[in-house]
Amino acid sequence: MSNIHGVISPCITLFKENGSVDEAATADLWTYFFENGVDGLFVTGSYGLGPLMTNEERVGLFEVAAKVREKFPDRKLIAHVGAADTASAVLLAKSAEKLGFDAVAAVAPWYNKYSENLIFDYFKSIIKSVNIPTYAYNNPSTSGFMFTLNFVQRLQAVGLKGLKDASVNFKFLSAVYYDAKQNNKDFQVILGTENCWLTWSQMGADTIIGGMTNYVPDVDYKLKKIFECDNYDAKVDAYILMSNFRKQILYTDSTISSHVALKATGHYAGYTRAPMEIEYTEEHINNAKKLIAGIREDIDSLIDKYSLEITDPKALVSSH
């Protein structure tokens, strides 16, 4: 079974003003994530703007992630290798494996419309190209392709080891999850958002891709610990706080909102790459500052209210 658990960051990539990848600033940011309790990185995914990069740039960021992980050997790395063409996806997967990544994941090929059989062949090529686990990434809003249980089962038969789901279609998600659980399959399902985190944890699942890690990794760490406890009332209260926070902080595209929220924390937030542009006002920054201060205070108050014992993630780092 997979050894990837906890909260994985769909880590943003920082660019320079001229549009080139800022590897040094990105490395500092990803180190900050690990220092604040993030369990792993999902590199060059949607938040990370992988589709806007060349293969060489993406491999360069795989190298950055591998270097950052050296000080945090217990953390996990997943490389998003999805591409518009099969050859690029395979090249990226092999590169990630060579660099010691724990797994690769891929969204269905985008732009052109393909038959289910051709998409199956694309995933099979990735699966067969590496000896580390391959996860399929179900993100129909960007790929135009929605997975089904039958399609997942076809891929499982050729070695697929997991699914990251961003559709939040719980009819599909629960079908895949319980099919694997009831049939003792070596297969993991990862929820691709904090949305529905409470439901997910109540089902017995323990791994999510959390976008809030891009600006409040400490909060997602504490939420993870709360959802692991036995106090259901604490879980409900925490989920309500988190849901209200997300509704307000995500005022536009999640990647842009993450950069603005990160800037509001005082951390260097860099630039994005054209055609994406970070547009914000001082009002956006000030609002994000208030929201972030509020969620941190509210979560800490909740922890005190229910007398929960949660270790500071920085103490865990220093113990290694």
TrEMBL record:
- Transferase in keyword set: no
Q: Which domain of life is it from?
A: Bacteria
UniProt keyword annotations, A-Z = Lyase, Schiff base
Q: What is this protein called?
A: Dihydrodipicolinate synthase family protein
Whose protein is this, by species? Companilactobacillus huachuanensis
Lineage, top ranks: Bacteria, Bacillati, Bacillota, Bacilli, Lactobacillales
